[in-house]
Amino acid sequence: MKTRFDTYVNPQRPWYRTAPFYIVLAVLVIFLVVVLIAQFTGKESGPEPAASQSAAGATASDDPDAQIKALIERRDADDPRAIGDVDAPVVMVEWTDLRCPFCGLFSREILPVLKEEYVDTGKVRIEFRDVAYFGERSASASAAARAAAKQDKYVEYLQAIYARAPESGHPDLPESELIEVAEEVSVPDMARFKEDMKDPQLVAEAEEESNEARRLGVQGVPFFAVGSTVLTGAQPLDNFRGFLDQAIEEAS
User: Fold this and answer.
1) Over the chain, what is the mean pLDDT?
2) Which end of the chain is less congested by CB atoms within 10 angstroms, N or C?
């Protein structure tokens, strides 16, 4: 029996085969080469063990999966835009737009199951990247979500936005609705929220995260990555289970 997700199913694929990733990887490799040259041509020679560690680091830098993990994983214990153990063996990153209907489907129908089966059991950490792919309204919504994050209400805010989202089309999300959602999820200081959501810096952060995502090859949302392997679009639950089970097995 077909589900509404079937049309959007895409196979898992190595992320590092995309051209944008090669550009980012090349920049990172050049940076590492410069660092290594500086280490070996400095006026003072380091002790023997330090040199060995540098060589080991250079070898690790050749691993595309390790490189992409270094680029996309935050693993910050104080990060309000994440759920799960900071030391979980697997980190799944989701790029999402608050005006994206299929991001809403994932939030409502898939995320609660993944949280119960993988996040709450300590197997997976999920980190969110809210981007502004659908214009200025998306940027304003992202700024509002980040304002909620300042009061540790980011995930609740995201889920509340998606709970009221239509199954197709992009909701307008006017300022009045963004404030209403903040009240709905009990953001503690509403005066501060209203001030923060208009902070140009938060809008700029959303736009910069969008630009960074495009440089990495994220052409649409929702987009999910575990290291160099990705899932794109709103997919069936079993696809996510297979995706995460494979990542957990490889991490063990």
Assistant:
1) 83
2) N
